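thought: fold this chain, then report.
action: predict
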Amino acid sequence: MLKIENVHKTFNPGTINEKKALQGINLTLESGDFVTVIGGNGAGKSTLLNMITGVYPVDCGTIEIDGINLTKMPDYKRAKFFGRVFQDPMMGTAADMQIEENLALALRRGKPRTLLPGITRKERAMFRELLAALDLGLENRLTSKVGLLSGGQRQAITLLMATLQNPKLLMLDEHTAALDPQTAAKVLELTDQIVNRDKITTIMITHNMKDAIAHGNRLIMMDSGRIVYDVSGEEKQRLTVPELIQKFSESGGGMLSDRTLLQS
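observation:
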């Protein structure tokens, strides 16, 4: 589903602020893979997602999704392949619009506009059913403004919007980092539910080692723009946090951030 070959990215090359963000990244994801990505600050995790979505052009290398070469495709053209949820619950939704209006926008993404009613009765029934599955009581609040929701509720709505059209690749960029532990656990539960139900190929960045081990079928650790550890299957399931820290050290990684260590 995703194939990245020898991707490099350097910011501010030739200056005192030069930063080698990605250094020869090679990564292949099969359809339905759920990959968690962990690493310290500046390891290249978010830059990797930004390269895939076209926020920044690559210096060299190729990026393909489902056999389509995206390397030189502008970001607005490749957007149809992806769903993305960011760390900030305020991103990904229109705060002044109703819940059903936000969902309708996500449903119509990439489709031609018509003069038909904004939201049909059939769509409203579908939205109510999808929201009921979240078990957050939002199915009876379709006309509530999204800006009035809690952070966890907004992230749940954003996750639903990002997966409404079953994207080729779902990217979760620390999407629970701004939430309290209980709410974060609920959003992760919803994530597993949606990803497993729809078999969506997924990349999830997290600073929490326990979450990285507990979720998905594959784990990747990054440091200094490189993949330093890649584990899947039963070996991943048997991993413990101390073993993961030891693997990071053995792979030549630098110091993990306090945030990563404290959350683990």
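thought: worth noting. The mean pLDDT is 86.
final: tokens above.
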